[in-house]
Design a protein that fits this description.
By secondary structure, the protein is mainly beta. The protein has no helices and nine strands. Strands 1, 3, 4, 6, 7 and 9 form a six-stranded antiparallel beta sheet that branches. Strands 2-8-5 form a three-stranded antiparallel beta sheet, with no helix packed on it. The relative contact order is 0.28.
Amino acid sequence: MFLASALPASAEPTAVSAATVTVEGGGLSISAPGDAGNLGTQSNGVGPLTISGPLGQVQVTDSRGAPAGSGWTATAISTAFTQTAGPSIGAAAVGYSAGPITKVGTATYTANDPANLTGVSPVVTATAITGDNTATWNPTIHVAVAADMPAGVYIGTITHSVS
């Protein structure tokens, strides 16, 4: 005796599968030289003087994939410039000039050039961002030295951040 079995109906000629991928935003970061070295040397004189020099390359990298129109602000703050003994040069005497900004990506960059770095001060602002971007600049730091400052090597720290 033969048992007949039914064969399955033929399968559909196509199959559809839903699939997804996720693109995660990266980060927002800033880098600056760990040791900028000597910003300059001048002989003391009768009047006040300003010693200026390049800090070194500062770079903001924005790989957040932020929505169009987003922005960020890079800031800086300085400590007083001190020597091992004696008076110091306060952060109110430390100025910042961003100089030319090299950019990659789409954004509008503004150099804010604060006259002093006593508090957290905006140094470069990016607005109207579309997608990922980077901005690079080599700021000039200006240190105003009073006429009666003793000769010596004064050391300060400039801290950058971005948000």
